[in-house]
Amino acid sequence: MTNFNAQKECERIIEFIRNYYKEHHLGGVVIGISGGKDSAVVAALMVKALGKENVLGLTLPCHSKEEDKTDALLISKYYGFEMVNIDLTSTYDEFKKQINLLGNFTDQEIINSDINLKPRLRMASLYYMAALYSALKGKTYLVAGTSNKCELFVGYFTKGGDSVHDISPIADLTVAEVIALGEVLDVPAKVLYKKPNDGLSNQTDEDKLGVSYKDIANYMEEPKKLDEKIALRIRKLHEANLHKFNIPTYYKTKG
What is residue 158's DSSP assignment? Predict the structure, then answer.
């Protein structure tokens, strides 16, 4: 986090959001509020940039921890924006019932499908509410992304889930930089310093990745200074998930 000025960066991001909304004649934003620091920081930035009356937060529990919903409500109350709860548990369960009709699958076979289904249901919910509020308010609502640079580098996101959004305020910030920004924005400490987890698999992010976010940030800056095994792990994660960023497209030959 060399030479990172959180106050100036905060001001630049707010200006970036305002300019984009003005240029494209946009009105509001929908954000999935997970109860973690990334969505809290994005919400705070959007409130500063657009005003709390133009921010809609969604809690989207799906076999989730009650603490996450409580922390999400803490953020909405603190910054004063509207919050809507859409419980996706029964939707998820009904989908699973249909899948179970196809055969008897082992837990190992379905674990990744199950984990990734949840953010995909959440993505659909966010866009539904963005379209609904665009109609209700007579102005266009976008869906904000909440991924940070460390997550993106190792592909720690779901294709067709949290990878889908319309504006990315913190995608070029490491975890440490997001926290520094959160301190400037006065994000409640209970949320800002909470151990990151996906709220889906009962594991912390770093447990799942097998490396720390600090190591990922260090790798992006000075890979040769890291322990060889850790560097190899990060490089493999990065390379294995490059397909998430590009869709191979065939173009017919002209002439």
Answer: -
Of the options 3.40.50.1820, 3.30.457.10, 3.40.50.620, 3.10.100.10, the CATH number for the domain spanning 6-196: 3.40.50.620
Domain residue ranges of the chain, discontinuous segments joined by +: 6-196
CB of 57 closer than 8 Å to CB of 77:
no
DSSP class per residue in 186-201: T--HHHHTSPPB-SSS
Predicted confidence at residue 40, as pLDDT, reads 98
pTM of the predicted model as reported, rounded to 2 decimal places: 0.94
pLDDT bucket at 196, cuts 50 / 70 / 90: confident
Q: Which residues pair with 85 in a beta bridge?
A: 59
Cα–Cα distance list, 218 to 40, 194, 205, 212, 222 (Å) = 24, 21, 17, 10, 6
